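[09:14] KT: can someone run the structure on this one? pasting the chain below
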Amino acid sequence: MGYRKEHVPVAQRKSQPFGYGSDIVAIGLAAGEGRRSRPLTLKAKGYLRSKGAIRLLGQRLMDWIVKALVGEGIYHYIMVTKGKENRYQVKRLLGYGDSLGIQVRYSHTRFDKLDRGSADATLLNMEHFNVLPATLVFPTDSILDVDVSGLLEQHTERRSVATVLTFNVPAQEAIDKYGVIVTDAEGRVMEFVEKPNQEQADRIIERTGSEVFLTNAGFYMLDAAACREVAQCSEIRRMRERSLDFGKDFLPWLVQNDYPVHTRPIGIVGDLGNIPAYLDTMLRVLRGEFPKADAHLGYCYSRDRRIWIEPETLGSVDEWSGRTLEERIDSGEITIGSHVRIGKYVHIASGAHLDECNIDDECEIYADARIVRSSIGEGSIIGPAAEIEDCVCGVMAEIQSSKSSPTYLSGFTAIGDEATVRAGVMLQDGVTVYPRVKVPRGCYCPPGAELTSADDVMEWL
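[09:31] RB: done, structure tokens below
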């Protein structure tokens, strides 16, 4: 079955199409459980917050994404949610879009039991809300820098049913890890290869002449009317009874049935699906790889060194010396390296060293603490002489420490909201501490350990 240039249009509905008069409607996939991102997505044990509610550099991830898309001229949004907790959290973040000057609608509760995968949920909501403009489908656990007008122009000119945003990965990195897209010279997709093994990778290299592979970034521009017509095909309807995801099912089916699917390289995309990816994306933003994000980082203290410190913190007076933070930085009492963001009302004691890190509002950083390539959540306390490197601390975490018994956190360790780590503890190599768990001195955890409760802590004492 081929894609006809004069395909039969979707029957006109009695209701006015959502986003009528607009060039683009955006559909956000916010229904994921975010299990890879724990403890960032944990508010308490057994309570997962939406991935869009994760904080990145002082803002919710959903704010980053929507502000970026609004800046590209997209004003109509449908958010695909699932479950009461997820729906409530996303709705609290965006409301109906009034504060941002946009229109936001939400998938209906009754759809929760019906949708079976990302593509199925998208088609279901396209039909329900009578979506006809071009549609940008986006995940809510990534931030992006994309030229939407250029994407729409290419999508329209090539009469694509779908345009897949892609990024480049060296062939050896893609093996057994990434889905790979094979295209012709004009960028039309010829094949999807799900996590190729070495033999498959060698065949792709021989076929394309390139050792750099295209991989799916998870963002799609769709011809809504054409996709809604495709959804009526008997084969697609049978597939939707089981599962219909974009990368595994829907897009490969379009290619196999000769519908035009093209690729377009994305400017840059940052994944926040796990702790290493979260920190990598944070650092890339701080280093300037997402230039459109700079305006959202706060007051720029040093443009050359890319340091942002809010005025409420810069002007705060130290109770012991009687001098402001800015004066103590200038005198060298506090060392601020480069690529640092510090929020409002943060207390920083003399001897502290901060480099390539984020410190959210109202944190307390005590004497001689060292924080490098890490993110410290709002209201957290970092004790004297603590060493924190390549770590994430959640909201109101307490890292106790002293000069005689310093605490060391490193190697992508993650500390959940309101958790407490006692002085003298060493956690490293991917250890995860769940919200409100207390880690006593003398607790020695193996790499990758998850401390979900007091029982887990007792196991490693």
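[09:33] KT: thanks! The first helix runs from residue 61 to 71.
[09:34] RB: yep, looked fine to me
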